Amino acid sequence: MKNTYYILQRELYAYFASPIAYVIMGFFLAFSGVLFSGYLSPTSDANTVMRQWFSVSGFVMLFIGALLPTRLIAEEQRTGTLELLFTSPVRDWEVVLGKFLATVALFLLLVVLTFYYLVALIVLGGQFDWGPILTGYVGLILLCSVFFAIGLMASAFTQSQAVAAVISIILSLFLWIAGPLFVRQSEDNWWANTLNFLSLQPHIDSFSKGVFDLRDIVFYLSIITLFLVITTQVLKVRRAD
Amino acid sequence: MIDVEKLTKYYGQRAAVRDVSFHVAKGEILGLLGPNGAGKTTTMRMLTGYLPATSGDAVVAGYNVADNPMEVRRRLGYLPETVPLYTDMTVRAYLDFTAKLRGVPGKGRKSRVEEVMELCRISEVKNKVIAKISRGYRQRVGLAQAIVHNPQVIILDEPTVGLDPRQIIEIRQVIRDLAGGHSLILSTHILPEVSTLCDRVVIINRGRVLVDKTLAELEQQGAGNERLRLEIRGPAQQVQIFLASQPGILQIEQASADNAESDVDMLAREPRELNRFMVEAAPGIDLREQLAKAIIGQGWGLLEMRTAAPSLEEIFVRLINTDEAAELEDEEADELTDEDEELDEPEEEDTLNFAKPAPSFLQKAAGEELDEPAPTKKLEKKDNKK
Description:
The structure holds two protein chains of two kinds. Chain A is mainly alpha-helical. Chain A is built from twelve helices and no strands. Helix content of chain B is about 45%, strand content about 25%. Chain B contains 16 helices and 14 strands. Chain B has a six-stranded mixed beta sheet with strand order 6-7-8-3-9-10, with helices on both faces. A four-stranded antiparallel beta sheet of chain B has the order 2-1-4-5. In chain B, strand 1 (about 1-10) and strand 2 (about 15-25) form a beta hairpin. The longest helix of chain B is centred in the last third of the chain and has 26 residues, at about 310-335. The chains are: A mainly alpha, B alpha/beta. The interface of A and B includes residues 13, 81 and 240 of A.
């Protein structure tokens, strides 16, 4: 576990040593800020504004969030530093987990920076029901973590960050809307239910309504674990030949 | 300290390493030698646990690599062929990170990193970002990360590749300083490196061990007859006949007749031939004095005479060539006995791989000694006789 922390430390260092962290954070804040101000209107209450903001932020992160973790493994495969990690007394999963958590940590920092929306709403005289705000943030973090796990997996497949980012976006997009896209509302058979269940989007709804549904949390965590395990296995297989 | 037993690695149908066995004692420096593509890197990667072996056993520092990879890695320092550097970090931060990963305890870590930077002579760049330092420094930073946790076993994959002569000398010095407390495996295709650094040599070709000997043994093996290199101005045929008549001489070989007569000679219209000979005498007989007198007595010009001890290069090339010839025979035999297997043999790739590197590193490593084609020519003959 200590090793995971060392890897996390190094990846955070790397994020801020290159312009990537600043560019992506800046872009996200600018873009989501514009959307936020768009949702502001004299008639809407504070919670509605934030709810709309949460749902669109997740979608924005699907695209730009893919650029964060895809560098992590692809780049190391290209430069050969993965050989350093995998000949050190560090387990494969510790490397993968460390890299994943570094990205999540970076995103948490980004989330903290968005708290000024809340401050702005209070200053403007908004009244908050804090429950949905809290669950909304938790949902956003879980959702983006899924994107990061997918990005990391894509990164393990290739040496090129660009290729990894494309794979990551396509896969995330598919998972995001597979259910709503392919299944009509009224349909009720096994494959429609499965597809709906596997889609990321339906699971986010309860969070934005202020409900902590354990099933949704378990769902997100399972998906994340699944992708991280695949990442570890891909690395193992790619190394062997 | 390192025990390798029948280590084998297949990539698909192709065997990159076949039944490689060797042993490295504590404090010993082993040179792993071979042409490009011989399987050196694959062997080393299996020792580090980076690549799983198809079969066979490797025990490093008392632990089996397959069963206890973490214990092995804790006791092992490895410098891959491409130096694994995070170019966005400073030298010090990078070494601190690698020290943490290798489990150097927090208390002595800082001083250990300083110590290693001192040892590898990189202290003057410790606060520079790795992307900004020169290749020579990078290579030494790579070496520093391999030894930062004071491992019992150090594996270096071509540590001097791509460095200039001064840097090579510096890095060799560092490696020599390391020996003693550590067991070291060093792969290279630069032969002088082996003679200056290593106690023992394992030569690998086509994924198999050809030779496993101490340096002295290897040189002795190549020694054989005394050989003299002569450059004589005089009519070739007569000189040769004369030489053959001298007592003690076993064999005479005329090297390429030097047709590049100087302009002065052309003007004088005097056919003065410049001839090179390689003369072999029985071991232990020094013919030089007697031969020099005799040649001059004949009125010919003796321009050069020197003993030609077979260099490591010659021994190496001979070994590889013999192995290559054996491979051809093998393949012919395979064709006769088993037609299916012949399909699996990637023979074209093999010959391409091995035909080329030999001359190239001859030129690189041996320089002037090898611009005369005579010795190789002769070696080939000898091989065929065998």
